[in-house]
């Protein structure tokens, strides 16, 4: 009897090891909706708020180490201004202002879709704080649609850093967005970033999920 039980156990183990592992990972990606915001260099922060000023964190964001600050500024173009634009931390090496396409019309500025950090050839903007103002030489962008992920996520989805893909959203106003950049690195958390105008066009919100179409 003991030999039979041992043989049965070996057979069960062999069958289990031969069976394909069940996949629990989803092909759906969470969405983050971004409104206009500002990233400041330390030098510009000092000019706008005072020498040695430290920003006040009010909320952590989905990407590791990123957070929303209590402080806001006013951004100005030739034709108009937008008040209470949120600052995101931490400070960066260069100041960057991310706006919506509609904001450009209101301010009389022109900004093209760019990935964060790619500021070559971008226009400048006037930023006003409680202690001073800054006229940047560059840094005004409309954020290009992108997906943050780790290299492991990229392997799962069959994509690579820098690849341009399409994304699909289901629903009554669903559809497809093209020109979505993959940003894969170890400092990222899985999330697709679009702005409020893009989200409103398809009735996408922070609880929505998208899928990648290659």
UniProtKB/TrEMBL annotation:
* Record's keyword terms, sorted: Acyltransferase, Metal-binding, Transferase, Zinc
Identify the EC number(s): 2.3.1.222
InterPro entries, per this entry? Answer: PTAC
Catalytic activity reads:
propanoyl-CoA + phosphate = propanoyl phosphate + CoA
**GO molecular-function term, one example from the UniProt record:** acyltransferase activity, transferring groups other than amino-acyl groups
Membrane-spanning residues? none
- Pfam families the UniProt entry points to: PTAC
Q: Which family does it belong to?
A: Belongs to the PduL family.
Task performed by this protein: Involved in 1,2-propanediol (1,2-PD) degradation by catalyzing the conversion of propanoyl-CoA to propanoyl-phosphate.
Q: What is this protein called?
A: Phosphate propanoyltransferase
Q: Which organism is it from?
A: Clostridium aminobutyricum
């Amino acid at each position: 009897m003991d030999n039979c039980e041992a043989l049965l156990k070996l057979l069960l183990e062999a069958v289990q090891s031969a069976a394909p592992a069940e996949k629990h990972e989803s092909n759906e990606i969470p969405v983050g909706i971004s409104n206009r915001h500002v990233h400041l260099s330390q030098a510009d922060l000092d000019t706008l708020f005072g020498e040695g000023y430290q920003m006040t964190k009010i909320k952590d964001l989905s990407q590791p180490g990123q957070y929303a600050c209590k402080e806001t500024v006013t951004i100005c173009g030739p034709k108009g201004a937008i008040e209470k634009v949120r600052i995101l931390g931490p400070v960066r090496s260069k100041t960057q202002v991310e706006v919506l396409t509609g904001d450009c019309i209101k301010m009389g500025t022109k900004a093209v879709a760019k990935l964060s950090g790619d500021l070559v050839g971008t226009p400048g903007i006037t930023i006003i704080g409680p202690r001073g103002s800054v006229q940047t030489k560059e840094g005004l962008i409309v954020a290009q649609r992108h997906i943050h992920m780790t290299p492991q996520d990229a392997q799962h989805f069959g994509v690579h850093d820098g690849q341009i893909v399409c994304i699909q959203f289901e629903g009554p106003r669903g559809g497809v967005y093209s020109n979505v950049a993959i940003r894969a690195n170890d400092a990222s958390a899985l999330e697709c970033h679009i702005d409020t105008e893009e989200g409103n066009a398809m009735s996408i919100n922070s609880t929505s999920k998208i899928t990648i179409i290659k």
